[in-house]
Amino acid sequence: MLRVQLPLLAASLAVLLAGNVAAQQRTTAISDVELAAQACNVCHGNASYVSPTMPRIRGNDATTLYTALIELKTDKRQATIMNRIAKGYSDEQLRALADYLSKN
Amino acid sequence: MTSFSRRQVLAGAAATAGSFALPHIARAQNAGGRVVVIGGGFGGATAARYIRQFDPSIEVTLVERDATYVTCPFSNYVLGGFRSIESITHRRDPLQERYGIKLVRAEATAIDTSARQVSLRTGSKLPYDRLVVAPGIELKYDGVPGWSEAAANSNMPHAWKAGPQTMLLRRQLEAMPDGGVVIVAPPANPFRCPPGPYERVSMIAWYLKNHKPKSKILILDAKDAFSKQGLFMGGWESQYPGMITWIAGKDGGKIESVDPKAMTVSTGFGTEKGAVINIIPPQTAGRIAINAGLAEPNGWCAVDPNSFASTKAPNVYVLGDASIAGAMPKSGTAANSQAKVVAANVVASLRGTTPPAAVYHNTCYSLVTPDYGISVSDTYRPSPKGVAVVPNSGGVSPVRADAVHRKAEAQYTMGWYAGIIADTFG
Hints:
The structure holds two protein chains of two kinds. Chain A is mainly alpha-helical. Chain A contains five helices and two strands; from the N terminus they run H-H-E-E-H-H-H. Chain A is globular and about 45 Å long. Chain B is built from twelve helices and 25 strands. Chain A binds chain B through residues 17, 21, 24-32, 34-36, 38-39, 41-46, 48-49, 51-54, 80-81, 84-85, 87-89, and chain B through 28, 31-32, 50, 54-57, 98, 333, 336-337, 340-341, 344, 347-348, 351, 353-359, 361, 363, 375, 377-379, 390, 392-395, 397, 405, 408-409, 411-412, 414-416, 418-420, 422-423, 426.
């Protein structure tokens, strides 16, 4: 029994370890938009923290978010700091952010 | 673009050399790479967290001397009397529990950038593949003649590192007589939290207005201009008329010496006596960064604006207040933002992938009263001259705004704080 079990155990352990590492280790590059989108978290929260104060980003579709960002950028929608922040990005960058934030 | 590509090649080469240099067993245990982060403030803790978020196979060890973190942001509200010190004191345990970051409570005393290891005061050594240095600031106690660490701990506090110093200044405000003068002395640039001294003055004024309304505040400034100056001065005029006097450096504000026993401050124009005197001294990068040879002669650490990689040592990143970050101020939000860029670059260099384009953000809220908030907010990109504001974006709150707008920014100040604590410490 023992002679059978030990190699089995070792094999399972090896598979488990290899599987862990393969599953966890990042294989894709971090895209420009993935990094840029992390900036929002500092005020608006993230998947595990929902701010009671700040307007909510997550749960909105890409069109809603893009429209809001463009209106903030062009001062059609009056807010406080978001009018200033949205001007820091091109329309294309805002569209990519809206797409990313609607899915993540 | 050329230097960007070269940087990538170098980073890739360093990563490869790093993994070959490791013993076989160590490689198996740390297949994702080992990162040590020195400093568990807004910069270091955010970097540790986001490295694990981007790539959970990387082993991250966070080295921090103190058990808890008392934030400098909101410590002025403790002085104002409407926030407790407990409410701005935070534990780092969630970083370990939720993100698997190894917390080591110890003081880092030396960095060997050739052997790639960090020495701790306990005597043990931590090897690293990549090192993130986020030590904050060191106060220059010899930067103001007559002042000293002993004076700071008795009757002329700095309160520029939050905690016992904040409470010392608070107690002095509580003990002073109505009708006394509070002297606040901010340093020349650069220093931690450019709007901080002026928000502090606002919060001291809030306390005095409500409890000791005959008192005055005198700002003896080493500078001739300061952050959000028009907004602060407009707020003081409307909220605390006649209470606050600001003397620019060129008009005699620059302190030449202090006498802690006599509780006096001397400038080129005369000697002023204070009931409470708050000296905010000149600063440098944290001692560990200077001892490790990461700083310039001016005491701050030069970095690549694309990644916050040190210009002095390979495989090392310096971020937050200790770094020379171009147009970015030394603030908690700036450090949090830089940390995300550093995390992405650390992961990219360990994985041999192309890092994303760097983009940085800063917002500094300040309160003039608990219901009167003002802000500066900017987006930044790398430029040949360092980190620079994206043209035609950002800026400060409108000079003319109604009470509803100021109140909204005061509410967002509270929201920002809750958000950055959640984003930094989990």
